[in-house]
Amino acid sequence: xxxxxxxxxxxxxxxxxxxxxxxxxxxxxxxxxxxxxxxxxxxxxxxxxxxxxxxxxxxxxxxxxxxxxxxxxxxxxxxxxxxxxxxxxxxxxxxxxxxxxxxxxxxxxxxxxxxxxxxxxxxxxxxxxxxxxxxxxxxxxxxxxxxxxxxxxxxxxxxxxxxxxxxxxxxxxxxxxxxxxxxxxxxxxxxxxxxxxxxxxxxxxxxxxxxxxxxxxxxxxxxxxxxxxxxxxxxxxxxxxxxxxxxxxxxxxxxxxxxxxxxxxxxxxxxxxxxxxxxxxxxxxxxxxxxxxxxxxxx
Length: 299
Known about the structure:
Number of strands: 2
Strand order of the largest sheet: 1-2
Low-confidence stretches: none
Largest sheet: 2 strands, antiparallel
Number of helices: 15
Helix content: 55-70%
Structural class: mainly alpha
Shape: globular
Strand content: under 5%
Order of helices and strands: HHHHHHEEHHHHHHHHH
């Protein structure tokens, strides 16, 4: 399969992103024939194949998660985020790929391991509110914001999704959410809006949100040829945060997209959506199921 320079660069980046800290790459093409948690014909398989929109949506999700004080405290005090933010993001991205494209048994083992680790994470926020990482209400928020981020990024910068399609993607993720313990996660666009309405009074501004935005803007996330795009990608992610939340947590217009940048993101995401990446989890998962590596790209 011949790739353009753009495709080769993105493929190398995707392969590196799927390399866990122990250096042992995960082969999504094995074992042959084993299904994933989600069907290969699902909308989720279609939208998660785009590495650029997934990166943008992931940043949006983290901003929303960090706006909730209990989630923020747990992430900042009980994870490697401060010391190794890129490694943490890499592991989070790998987990997302595994839940969508990984063989079912491996995905279930991975999720069970995350749940066990979260069982040991508890504490008190700076405001004196006790929290536990496996609190179902917090898990619902984390799962909901992740789905919203990925869906919003794809719909804004790749191809507009209808309300019905957005609801379908929320519903598809319900089985994964339940495995994490998020039994009350939204199953439709309307349920997402209702959850957001309930949660907005709990969200608050924090220097940690701004620290995260600066980390994503300035650290080496993308390969050198695309390093100058990081700021645009981060601003594109901020742009997806619901306007009332942006205002509530103090993300002013200076954090959003500048003139012409939305068009550039559309171009990048559209190019990524048409580029088959042999090393990526979607292509490997298709081969695992006996499908062409480009199965998702002609739809």
